[in-house]
Amino acid sequence: MDFDEAVDRAPPGWRYFTTDDVARLPDAVRDHEMARVPAGETEERILRGLFWTLVYHLAPDRWDELARHEPIASELIDVLPRGAELALDVGAGSGRLTAHLVRRSTRVIAVEPSAPLRALLTARLPSVQVLSAWAEALPLADGSSQLTAACGAFGPEPNVLDELRRVTAAGGVIALISPEHPEWFEQHGWRRIVAPAPPPPEHPQWLDEFFGPLDPPHELVMTRVD
Ligand SMILES: C[S@@+](CC[C@H](N)C(=O)[O-])C[C@H]1O[C@@H](n2cnc3c(N)ncnc32)[C@H](O)[C@@H]1O
């Protein structure tokens, strides 16, 4: 998502954060995120544009509670290949998709830049190898994974897609659940699957007040790597 889109689509909870919070982000994270902020932006637009980053790094329990109440539609999990020797979850968060990959793959590596989310994931899924890295520079050899997956993390960003392709073995699958701009993937030959939107389970009201209406992931795009 580009910066203007992130500003426009920031949930109401952006007001919970201040510029002091931006300063509290780990240096590498702040540098990575501020690189996409155009010069001269106002304080409000920066907080809106960095909302999700601030949540992942400074309010991880809020993200985790949201993810728990937005389960991935089972129809999407059902179409993911089974039996990958290595499955990769990029931008794994606290492990919502990773947990499914563990049940259908021999080995799973999760890549996640947020230290508190990595800690939640490790506590829940101790068999998963968890790496601190960005999707733009995955610390993995070419062709290492048979299933490279992500949920809610990426859209058609060329540098990220190049990396996902690079680390996926020939014959392997890249699967993106709830990608930004799914129509772009469809136009570029990816298979697109839209499951019926499941109603969110019962949840505390603060989730709506902070994040806006809940929208459990129910769309997937996937492609096979040559
Ligand atoms: C919407 S959350 C989804 C988390 C998890 N996949 C899930 O479905 O619960 C997006 C995740 O991607 C991570 N992320 C954001 N930008 C990233 C990047 N450039 N490379 C790797 N991970 C990234 C965030 O830290 C966050 O955990």
Please tell me about this protein's structure.
The protein has a seven-stranded mixed sheet with strand order 3-2-1-4-5-7-6. The protein has helices spanning 3-8, 19-24, 27-34, 43-49, 51-58, 60-68, 74-79, 98-104, 115-124, 158-167, 182-187, 205-211; strands at 84-90, 105-111, 129-131, 145-151, 168-177, 191-194, 219-224. The mean pLDDT is 97. It has 226 residues and is α/β, with parallel strands linked by helices. It folds into two domains: 3-58, no CATH class; 68-224, Rossmann fold, CATH 3.40.50.150. α5 (51-58) packs across α6 (60-68). Helix content is 40%, strand content 19%. α10 (158-167) links the parallel β4 (145-151) and β5. S-adenosylmethionine is lined by residues 56, 67, 90-93, 96-97, 111-114, 117, 134-136, 151-153.
Throw out a few tags for this protein.
226 residues; alpha/beta; Rossmann fold; 2 domains; 7-stranded mixed sheet; 12 helices; 7 strands; 19% strand; globular; binds S-adenosylmethionine
Q: Brief description of this entry?
A:
This protein has 226 residues and is of the alpha/beta class. The chain has helices at 3-8, 19-24, 27-34, 43-49, 51-58, 60-68, 74-79, 98-104, 115-124, 158-167, 182-187, 205-211; strands at 84-90, 105-111, 129-131, 145-151, 168-177, 191-194, 219-224. It has two domains: 3-58, no CATH class; 68-224, 3-Layer(aba) Sandwich (Rossmann fold), CATH 3.40.50.
Name of the CATH homologous superfamily of the largest domain? Vaccinia Virus protein VP39
The strand count comes to: 7
Specify Rg, calculated over alpha carbons: 17 Å
Number of domains: 2
Could you spell the SSE succession in H and E letters?
HHHHHHHEHEHEEHEHEHE
Q: Sketch the major β-sheet.
A: 7 strands, mixed
Q: Which fold name corresponds to the CATH topology of the largest domain? A: Rossmann fold
The residue fraction in helices comes out at 25-40%
Shape: globular
- Bound small molecules, which ones? S-adenosylmethionine
